[in-house]
Design a protein that fits this description.
- The protein is α+β, with helices and mostly antiparallel strands.
- The chain folds into 2 domains: about 70 residues, no CATH class; about 80 residues, Roll (PH-domain like).
- About 45% of the residues lie in helices and about 20% in strands.
- It contains 5 helices and 8 strands, in the order βααββββββααβα.
- The strands form 2 sheets. A 5-stranded antiparallel beta sheet has the order 1-2-3-4-8. A 3-stranded antiparallel beta sheet has the order 5-6-7, with no helix packed on it.
- The longest helix is centred in the N-terminal third of the chain and has 25 residues.
- The protein is elongated and about 65 Å long.
């Protein structure tokens, strides 16, 4: 499985973590443990927000699926249910049920992570990575989809993508909020 994170997200994430550590260090050098809860709260808020918003989100490409890990949600998109992808402003996967799933980790076309446009017009590096894996999947597997028992009975088909809560991301967001509460409400 190949995991993609944009370079700019990694830089911003580590900058937030470093800024949090620097705030805490300056507090300890300047005043010691007096009013440490303010610096500790701000440091935790910066570090947790940087981790949740920039370091955690990713796009993982496997042999038969794509996994989009966003701030608080993970979306798994099997290639067998993928109808297309769009990479104009950000990466969006389109399912065979016309539902879309966006990737927080993929850069927009205006970012520095832009790669020269491919023949099909997709400019983001991750779009090319997904397209290559999707092409390999279609070439190696018989992708003819048999109707399911549910659709044969007239029931609506299952959603193309499965979505679940990313509890690590939720925890990081909660830690950032708790840090701000510690800094300004205590």
């Amino acid at each position: 499985m190949q995991i993609y994170r944009s370079r700019s997200s990694q830089v911003w994430g580590w900058l937030c973590v470093g800024l949090g550590a620097l705030i805490l260090l300056i507090q300890l050098i300047g005043s010691g443990l007096e009013q440490i809860h303010v610096a500790l709260g701000i440091a935790v808020a910066f570090a947790a927000a940087g981790y949740a918003a920039f370091l955690r989100p990713s796009v993982a490409v496997g042999e038969d699926h794509v996994e989009l890990r966003n701030v608080t949600q993970t979306v798994v998109a099997p290639f067998s249910r993928l109808a297309g992808l769009e990479a104009h402003w950000s990466l969006e996967l389109v399912g065979d049920d016309d539902k879309k799933a966006g990737a927080f980790a993929a850069p927009s076309r205006t970012g520095r992570d832009r790669v020269r446009p491919a023949e099909d017009g997709k400019s983001a590096e991750v779009a090319g990575l997904i397209t290559a894996a999707w092409d390999a999947y279609r070439a190696s597997a018989d992708t003819a989809v048999e109707p399911t028992a549910a659709s044969a009975l007239g029931h609506p088909p299952a959603p193309a993508f499965s979505r679940r809560v990313d509890w690590v991301g939720v925890g990081a967001v909660a830690a950032a909020v708790a840090g701000l509460a510690l800094a300004f409400l205590a």
